[in-house]
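Changelog-adjacent note: as of this version, every example in the card shows the full chain rather than a window. The one below runs 290 residues end to end.
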Amino acid sequence: MGTAAFAVPSLRALHDAGHRLELVVTQPDRPGNRLRITPPPVKVAALELGLEVFQPERIKAEESVARIASVAPELIVVVAYGQIIPPSILEIPPRGVLNVHASLLPRHRGAAPINRAILAGDRTTGVTIMRMDEQLDHGPILSAREVEIGPEEDAVSLGERLARLGAELLVETIDRLDRIRPVEQDHARATLAPRLVKQEGELSWDLSAEEIDRRVRGLRPWPGVTLPLGGVRVKVLRGRPLGGSGRPGQVLRRSREGVEVAAGHGSYLLQEIQLPGKRPAPAQAVVGHA
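Full-length structure tokens:
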């Protein structure tokens, strides 16, 4: 059961490891770019592998539960599916329901753990394989693997790394599932990673350069970051924090590297930006026209 691109490596890894995949459950096709109906990445991958696909609108519906139960799965794996799995499905497979979660639980439970790790300034994160229960990312841990977050790494590149790591760990965990003793999470240390909202990317130069940098990297690809520049709000695609000083929003210098702007603390080097209605471009090439 999966939908997003993050789930594709796990699907392929299970297939390549020789597991018999009776059914792939994913979200319905949705409008994508230019409102064209677009299949989810997991559906595309499943069809390439010749697997049967089921796309219920509501996973809790009786007919959805009945369809899944009809294949009598021994084990269910959930990766970035996008709907809460009801108890009626959790109780179907005799070996349980496993989840690949992109954080070191109990930190960053919820829908956006990769983004939230960067936004929080975490130095490390990882993936956790857990046995699902009825509560959000609450079940016992079967295995986990930690990685460092690079100082310039964004949510897209980190997500790709964690997707591959999670796929490897998933296959390893299933191989020794009967020998693993589940470990209860320390629920007192749990933190939440709620869905991103557009307003989180609408920034001002009063923020510190470090905070702006975390938002630029952590809010990719959506909602992205905008900052005021030359009377308009520009989308910031790439940059890095520096140690300059000045009035927040003041352009300090232009160079081949980019455009340095003073922040609430420190300064931020704009390297790639996008003006409203325009294509992405190097900041130094367009900032004089913003």
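Structural remarks: The chain has a mean pLDDT of 96.
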